[in-house]
Structure formats: structure tokens, C-alpha cells
Specification:
Elements (H helix, E strand, L loop, with lengths): L1 E4 L2 E5 L15 E2 L5 E8 L9 E2 L4 E6 L2 E8 L2 E9 L2 E7 L5 H19 L3 E2 L2 E6 L2 E6 L6 H11 L4 E4 L4 E5 L2 E5 L14 E3 L2 E7 L4 E3 L3 H11 L9 H14 L2 E6 L4 H13 L7
Parallel strand pairs: 2-4, 4-9, 12-17, 17-19
Antiparallel strand pairs: 1-2, 1-3, 5-6, 6-7, 7-8, 8-9, 10-14, 11-12, 11-13, 14-15, 15-16, 18-19
Helix pairs in contact: 3-4
């Protein structure tokens, strides 16, 4: 059984349900898979080839044109992520802690790579459909994206979570749409639905809720910082072109949140004030 997201069909059966709950079922498809993600929990991890250090915790090596990323914890191999054309293999050391989290993080990186092959973007964000609007709240983990999105659900029960961690963004001409994916964080808040993307809010915390404008340079910086980027060099130009169109066509603002219900009222009133800027209104 494969999962289908827009035009991507992926065969993926996770070893753990901690992060996937039941939301995979909403994406099941009878179409044949064109991408394959396999996960193994094993004590048989063999690394060969010249290693290139990527960071303090990861190295890379190439074997017969196949790419392998090796992850370490305290200098011991924790996992290996390998790419063979459209086949991806995640090997997790049986002695590794947090195996479910490793599976989720690595499989989401694979999905980002697959999405980039189709020129889609994945933004670290909580995406909701509020009334007819597609809204993204983006920022680092723990900043309050889900909390703010849930406040909209509390005030309007017709609000729907599109995705609570890794929504997919598709560009068609000068317009963007946001789509649900099964990679939806620990709460699994996701739906197999799509909506036109009307506005993006980046979140920072403060004492009083407010909305701030951003320069184009700041918009690009925030987008790059929170976009999942795992693509080859040939996709880089297209990615840059997408960002340029996005900052021109999609309203992007900074929210200072107070972590109170005031945040909802400030954002909701602001949306009412600027909704005529939305391309789809």
C-alpha cells in the first residue's frame, strides 16, 4: 500500500506509531509507488568509503553513486540514511535511543527530498484552514505554533488542521496552495486536504501580542530558516525563484505572541483588516 500526496506515491511502512498514529490511512492509495522508504532496526550497520564530515553529528560518503548519511551519538553510529535512485533505506542502530523520533526525522528528510524533485516546498509550520483562508504559523519548535493554531479551533470549530508540522506548499503560476502530509508531529494533527495559501505568520515570543511588518530580506531569511531543504544543486535555482514569487504574492508577517488568548484576537482582527490583499478573496 502506498501513500499519495498530490502526484507523489510513496511506499512507506513505519516501524513505530508514535509519530504517525492513524493519519497515514488518510493518504492511502491504490496507485503504484514510485518512491520507496524502508526502515530497518538493526545491529548490522556497515560503513565504507571515504567519509566527508557534514556536521558534528553527521558524515556523508558515496558508494557506487549511492549517497549515505551517517549519524552519530557520542561518536557511535546511530543511523545510516541511504539513497539508491528512488529507493531510500533508513537503518537505525538497535542500541539507539529515541528510535521512533529518529525514524520520524529521517523519513521527513526523505520526504523533503522527494518533494523537491517535484518542486514543492515543506515549511516547518502549523497550517490551518480558517473559514476560507489558508494560514501558516511558522517558527522553531516549542515557539507556540500549535498553541496559536488551536486557539483558532477553540473560537471557530469549523477550523481544520491541514498539517501541524510539515505542510507541503505547491506553486502554480503566481499562486500557492498548502497541502496536508502524514508528517504532522507528535500530535498527528493532519488532514488529506488542501487550501490556497493566503498568509504566513512567523512567530516570536514576547509580553504583548502584536503584528510586525517584515522587509523582503527578512522574509527570505525566515523562509530559508524554516524551509526543509534537502535538494540537489539543480533544484536550487527553482527554490530561489519560488521564494521570490512567494514574498511578492503571499503576505508574510511577524507575530509577537503573548501565549494568551489575546494572540488569537490580534491575529483574527488583523486578517479581517488585510484580507483584501489575499489573491483568492
Amino acid at each position: 500500500m502506498s501513500i499519495e500526496i498530490i502526484d507523489m506515491c510513496i511506499q512507506f511502512s513505519p516501524q513505530f506509531n508514535s509519530y504517525f498514529h492513524h493519519q497515514l490511512k488518510g493518504f492511502y492509495s491504490t496507485r503504484p509507488a514510485t518512491y520507496f522508504i524502508n526502515v530497518e532496526i538493526t545491529n548490522d550497520i556497515v560503513v565504507k568509503g571515504d567519509m566527508q564530515r557534514l556536521s558534528q553529528v553527521e558524515s556523508l560518503y558515496v558508494d557506487n553513486d549511492n549517497i549515505h548519511i551517517v549519524g552519530y551519538v557520542q561518536d557511535k553510529i546511530s543511523y545510516v540514511l541511504s539513497k539508491y535512485n528512488h529507493h531510500y533505506l533508513i537503518k537505525i542502530n538497535v542500541d539507539s535511543t529515541h528510535q521512533a523520533e529518529i525514524e520520524y526525522v529521517l523519513s521527513s528528510r526523505v520526504f523533503a527530498n522527494i518533494a523537491s524533485n517535484h518542486h514543492y516546498l515543506i515549511l516547518h509550520a502549523s497550517a490551518i484552514r480558517y473559514q476560507t483562508y489558508g494560514i501558516l504559523f511558522s517558527g522553531p519548535s516549542g515557539i507556540g505554533k500549535t498553541t496559536l493554531a488551536k486557539r483558532f479551533l477553540e473560537h471557530d470549530p469549523h477550523t481544520t488542521f491541514i498539517n501541524d508540522d510539515k505542510p507541503l506548499i505547491k506553486q502554480e503560476n503566481q499562486m500557492f496552495s498548502v497541502h496536508g502530509t502524514p508528517w504532522a508531529g507528535s500530535d498527528g494533527l493532519s488532514s488529506n486536504i488542501s487550501n490556497h495559501l493566503d498568509i504566513i505568520f512567523f512567530i516570536e515570543q514576547g509580553k504583548t501580542a502584536s503584528i510586525n511588518t517584515l522587509s523582503n530580506k527578512e522574509k527570505v531569511r525566515y523562509l530559508i530558516e524554516h524551509t526543509h531543504r534537502m535538494f540537489s544543486k539543480q533544484h536550487l535555482d527553482h527554490y530561489i525563484d519560488q521564494l521570490n514569487v512567494m514574498i511578492e504574492k503571499v503576505p508574510i508577517y511577524l507575530i509577537i505572541t503573548s501565549n494568551t488568548d489575546q494572540d488569537y484576537h490580534v491575529v483574527n482582527n488583523f486578517i479581517k483588516e488585510i484580507k483584501n490583499q489575499f489573491i483568492h478573496v
